[in-house]
Each structure stands twice: as structure tokens, then as C-alpha cells.
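Ex. 9. Protein: Alternate signal-mediated exported protein, CPF_0494 family.
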Amino acid sequence: MNQREKWRHLFRVFYHSKGFFAFFSILLSLLLIMGSTYAWIISSDERVNRAEENQKKLSAKITGDLDPVLHWAPGTVKTKQIKVKNNGEVPTIVRLSLTESFVSFETDAQDNHDDGNGNGNLTVYPAPVLPVVNVKDTSTWVVGKTYEMNANTHYKANFTLKDQTYAYRGTRAKPLPAIQLNFPNGKVFDENEQPAGTDKAYWYYEDGYFYYSEVLRPNEETSNLLDSVTLNAAYANRYKGAFYKLVPAMDAHDITKELLSDWGIHSTDYVYSLYQSKLSN
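Predicted C-alpha cells for Alternate signal-mediated exported protein, CPF_0494 family:
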């Protein structure tokens, strides 16, 4: 069985396993609602800035649990850790940003429910609408295009959100709030929750970026930015079978003062005071 056939087999198992993915509705009624989301996390867009005059290697990489989640049932938590490791030869400072993408498919919602969620299966189309949706390429996540289950079964995309910048504690477009990112307690701060003077090895969120508080020496690794991801039990059935993608992007910089201008850090920013004493000329 080749890789594509394995994926199709997994999707068929998911599609027909209604009992496994059922969960009680938030009204605690006896109605069982179905839903599932394909979620995956990959490292992407790793950037390094500047190198010391001795030309030692400046390099860092995103690490952690970055494997795809194939079957994700509402009300469940999946471990997903994101960290950064200095795999270069010089001390470095790093920051991360997160973007989210989402695509859902048409469902047969013809039933007696007033909320429009329905209990139907994904609507099947016998022929593809080209170019087809590629789960790994969000540029193909286009409304009206189809995802191929098999030669005679295609699902049509009816809603997309692409490359949504994740703002810590910020507003997210629906249905993204149903996908909860779980950050480690006491390790992520922002203007609403400042770190104490004794706090070390934490992330500080400012203007779209999570800045790591410490200088990473060669072979050192950050603490987790993310611990896990939860799919809320109230996840709407109309998003059944959707694809979700979370992408961390990383910047790494040597510890020269050019970091401040290269990253657009101003003297009024918290991270200016965080890094100023750590930088050299």
C-alpha cells in the first residue's frame, strides 16, 4: 500500500467511524453530534540574521512534536510542543510567530435542526473541480475546489481562512476559537501579564511575535512555546472533516545591537529592555 492509499484508507476509516467520534452536545441532550478536524503543525520560514565577523555558523531550528494529527475528535487534547534549538556555533536570540489556516467542506445538513449544523455526511461529488485541494498546500484551499477521497468521491470546499496571524489573547475569526492553543503556565507573558524579575526562560508576546527571554548558547533549547491543542467539544458539525494548519515561523539573530533595528524593536517596547543588556556592539 503506497502513501496515498494509506491516507485514503485512514480517511475512509474516519469517515465511517461515527460512533468513535460522537460526543454529547453542550446542551447535554441525548443528541450525538459528529465532527472531526485534520490538524497538522510544521516548521516553516526559518530565518537567520547576520553572522559574526569570524564567520562562525549562525543557525537555529524549530523542534518539538510537529507530526500531523490525522484523527482529531471534538473534546480531545493533542500534545503539540513547539521549541527552538540553537544548532549553530554562536549565541543567538530567537522569536516565533504563528499563522493558522482552515478549510471546511460541504455537508448534507437536511434534517430537523434549526441551528443549521445538521447530522449529515460530507456531500459527495463524483468528479473533481480542478485544481484539487492539496492538504499540504494552503494555496490550493479555495472555495469551490474539491478534495479527492477516491476516484468517485470528492468533497467540495465551502469555507477557507488562510494565513491568519495568531494574536496572543486576541480575536480570532470563527471557527478558529474552537481550536484552543494551550500555552505553558507561567512561561508566556504579554502587556497584560508581566513577568516577575525572577522569571527566566519565558516567552514574551509583543506585536505579533513571541520573543524568547534568554540568549541561546550553541546546543541550547528554549522552553516550550506551546504544550498542546484542544478541539472544543462544541465544535460545529458543519465543519466536520475540515483541515487545520498551524505554522510557526522563526527568526534567529546574533547578539549584536543590530538586532533592534533588524527586528524593528523600539525603545518603548518591552523587549527593548529585555534584550538591551544582552547585546554587544
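Check your answer against this statement. The chain is about 10% helix and 35% strand.
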